[in-house]
Design goal:
Blueprint: E1 3-10, E2 17-24, E3 35-42, E4 47-51, H1 53-61, E5 65-66, H2 68-74
Parallel strand pairs: 1-5
Antiparallel strand pairs: 1-2, 2-3, 3-4
């Protein structure tokens, strides 16, 4: 089972709100996640986020691969 950390889109049409989720590689983008790690919101004034770094590091240690976008968000 390949596990990835990626963004899942939430909110209304035209709004950039996402959840950081741990899910299996083959599931849908908005399918049921294994675990929710936090959220990310892109606004005109800047980006807002709340991410549980301990759980993120745990999943990385277990072999989960973050998507390119999640990698950029974490390194900000």
């Amino acid at each position: 089972m390949a596990v990835v950390i990626r963004l899942s889109k939430m909110g209304r049409k035209g709004e950039a709100r996402y959840r950081l989720v741990v899910t299996e590689k083959r599931t849908r983008r908005d399918g049921k996640p294994i675990e929710i790690l936090g959220w990310f919101e892109k606004t005109i004034k800047g980006n807002k986020s709340e991410i549980n770094k301990d759980r993120y590091n745990y999943w990385i240690s277990q072999g989960a691969q973050p998507s390119a976008t999640v990698g950029k968000i974490i390194n900000q």
